[in-house]
Amino acid sequence: MQTFFEALNELAASGQPFVAVTVVDTLGSTPQDRGSKMLVTAAGRAFGTVGGGKIEARSIEEAKSLLADPSAPKTRFHQWSLNKDIGMTCGGVVRVYFEAFNVTRWNIVVFGAGHVAQALVEMLIRLDCRVTCIDPREEWLAKLPVSPKLTKLTAADMPGEVAKIPEGSFVVLMTMGHTTDKPILIEILRTRTFPYVGVIGSDAKAKRLRQDIADAGLPEAMQRAFHCPIGLEIGSDAPQEIAISVVAQLLQQRDAKPPE
Question: What domains appear along the chain, each with residue ranges and CATH number?
């Protein structure tokens, strides 16, 4: 028989959003003891129980609301009188802890599915994030791993995909080269604002992109609105080591404290 923690680990690995519900304390007459646990997905109870009946129905309702609210914190704590708050005849009190998993709001969009992008995506899907990889070449997208955290998108018009990117996304450009990176970057700077925009390349490429931005008639400030080269100054030019340096920079930017 599957244990609670085996079921939790299985759901966590699947990438499916879910909530772990735990009865952390009880007082008086209650249908279930402290330590009772349940896992809830958007579809309802997936594993375990916290007592059945009205208390379980209320807990499932609370867990679903936690999954449905993008602005909600990942944890929630409730103390309920079973008689007054739940409508049960027993007069006990329960304290219930809710913790959501796989509900990250960190969205990362990678343009390009070449060697470095392959290494980058492999690492990103092991983190608490959602990744979209966009490339016109189906055969390269097919080489990416299969993961519920990863969306593969075949698009001949990559600049046309910029308008579809969710607000707050981190965007990384590592397509076939300057010719294909440039129009995507110009479209981003012309129409959108993201917390992180990075373009793979050298200092020479960065200089050329800044000239491209000036030639496009964009404000001078836009020449400083992206990272190029990308990644921290660590490692070699091997795809895996470049990917590590980029992931490190993405984490650094994600966790940066706003200026006081």
Answer: 4-101 (no CATH), 107-254 (3.40.50.720)
Strands 75-81 and 93-101: antiparallel
Alpha carbons 246 and 130: distance in angstroms, whole number:
16
Tokens linked to 46: 């997936």
On the CB side of 141, how many CA atoms lie within 13 Å of its CA?
A: 18
Burial class of residue 215 (count of CB atoms within 10 Å of its CB; 0-12, 13-18, 19+): exposed
Contact predicate 52/21, CB 8 Å: no
- pLDDT (tens digit, 9 = 90+) per residue, 56-110? 899 999 999 988 876 678 899 999 887 888 787 777 888 999 999 887 778 999 9
Q: Please report which confidence band the pLDDT of residue 187 belongs to, taking 50, 70 and 90 as the band edges.
A: very high
Report pLDDT for 171: 98
